[in-house]
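We modelled the chain as a single entity of 305 amino acids. Its sequence is:
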Amino acid sequence: MEELQKKHRQEQRDLQARITQKKKSATKKTRKGVNDECAELERQLKETQNLEISDITGESQNHGHPPDINDISNEGEPISEVNDCAIENDMQSLSVSSSQPKDERTKKPNRQKARLARRAAEKESIASQAAKEAKGQPDLRQQESEAMRALYTSRGLSEHQIQSDGHCLYAAVADQLNSREQNLMPKQSINGTLHLTSSSAPPYKITRTVAASYIDEHADDFLPFLEEPLDDYLSKIRDTGEWGGHLELLALAKAYDVNINVLQSSGHVEKIGSGTDGSKPALWLSYYHHNFGLGEHYNSLRQTG
């Protein structure tokens, strides 16, 4: 009988250790199920041990049976209660320790990095949207090129490429004059152009000087169309890569006493001349709006026949 009781006490200690481990591993969601399982294990062990004692003593299960598993004490308290309290304390300790930051001096979120990240995401979204929209748009560059080629064929013209920069209008006019063996000196005597006879400057630089000098000498004809002081406007023509337009073409047509025809992809020819005399030489330029990286561009056109 003493050996049986010793065996029962060992089984009870083993079961209690198993129950303790299960309860420690339980979470808030699984705790109820674990408690029910532990209670069932205790009931089964108690029933088995009572039957073993009854088999030996022949007595009722209520007499002479070993102490209940819950009666094995630890410093005068039931083991289940002691372990339940210990487990609860362990769980609270784990919960508190896991909720505390490892480093109490955790750095604050970097707001600047967050703003930069948001901006980058917004730019990427805009670029992606633009790309999607572009897929559904017509290719304006291709359409313009095809229209120009058809116009050249119908008019017996060939295109001479001019470098795509801010000087293209002046370079195209200079190419037209040179292709007709016409001197780049203006037909009219214009102040500020006499030194050009011995100039080794690039052709576009000469036509820039001629345009600026003509506008300066005939300022009253051009001032109503200017949006800035005359001196500033002339300085941009002479000394910078500022694009030219209708006013500069008009000044060059007057200075060289020629007509200038500007062919556009729509088929329209803008005629800029020094007068209505059709016998004057006609310079031909092509005007592009979409086909070059800088936007507007002029090329020089020559007769094929």
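As a brief sanity check on the tokenised model: The radius of gyration is 50 Å. Residues 60-66, 71-82, 94-99 have pLDDT under 50 and may be disordered.
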